[in-house]
Design a protein that fits this description.
The chain has one helix and nine strands, in the order βββββββββα. The chain has one domain: Pectate Lyase C-like. Strands 1, 2, 3, 4, 5, 6, 7, 8 and 9 form a nine-stranded parallel beta sheet that branches. It starts with 13 loop residues before the first strand and ends in a 7-residue tail after the last helix. The radius of gyration is 18 Å and the shape is elongated. The protein is mainly beta. It comes from Niallia alba. It holds the Pfam family Pentapeptide.
Length: about 210
């Protein structure tokens, strides 16, 4: 699956995330931000585009209604942040901490999560298209009532993830690992799994496999 990468200019000027407080339209673009700490804040409908953020912290911050386009996050901490009802397109999260993040009712397109922690993250009622989770734990993450189109979980730990009322048709989880998932048999139709996972699902469905 080809995912469209963020289009970001070179030689970006440096800014601090607190600069957004002085922007009338709460928008930052065409810049790079490093080492900013913006914890426990409430700032809704922020717009970020064509920029790079490195080593920043946004713990417990409420970013509801955020719009992200062509943005790269590296080594950023969004633990327990709120990004519900957000629009996230052509973005990359690399080595980020997204523990318990609230992404409910959001729209994702061409997004990559790589080496990022997504345990307990909530994606409920979101639409995800052309999304790759790579080497990123999603244990006990909530994907309840989501719409998936071209979604991959590559080498992720997924134990306890909730996919109730979410069709996994065409979704590739074959290289990932789990002990159990919350998913209905009808929603498993068309899911791409390994032979071992097929045996696991058979057990979850109460089938007795006889050699």
């Amino acid at each position: 699956m080809k995912i469209e990468a963020p289009k970001i200019p070179t030689d970006l000027p440096s800014r601090n995330f607190h600069d957004i407080l002085y922007e009338e339209d709460l928008e930052l673009e065409m810049c790079q931000i490093q080492q900013s700490i913006f914890d426990d804040e409430v700032l809704n409908k922020v717009r970020l585009s064509k920029m790079v953020l490195k080593n920043c912290k946004f713990i417990n911050t409420d970013f509801s209604g955020m719009e992200l386009t062509d943005v790269i996050f590296e080594n950023c901490d969004f633990s327990n942040a709120k990004l519900s009802s957000s629009s996230i397109h052509k973005c990359q999260f690399s080595n980020c901490k997204l523990l318990g993040v609230d992404f409910t009712d959001s729209r994702f397109g061409n997004v990559q999560f790589t080496d990022s922690l997504l345990n307990l993250a909530a994606f409920g009622s979101s639409k995800l298209e052309k999304i790759r989770f790579q080497d990123s734990p999603v244990e006990s993450a909530d994907f309840y009532d989501c719409i998936f189109k071209k979604v991959e979980f590559k080498k992720c730990t997924m134990d306890g993830a909730n996919f109730e009322r979410t069709s996994l048709n065409g979704v590739d989880i074959s290289t990932s690992t789990f002990q159990s998932l919350m998913v209905s048999p009808t929603d498993l139709k068309g899911c791409k799994v390994s032979t071992y996972q097929a045996i696991q699902f058979s057990a979850l469905l109460g089938l007795e496999i006889i050699d």
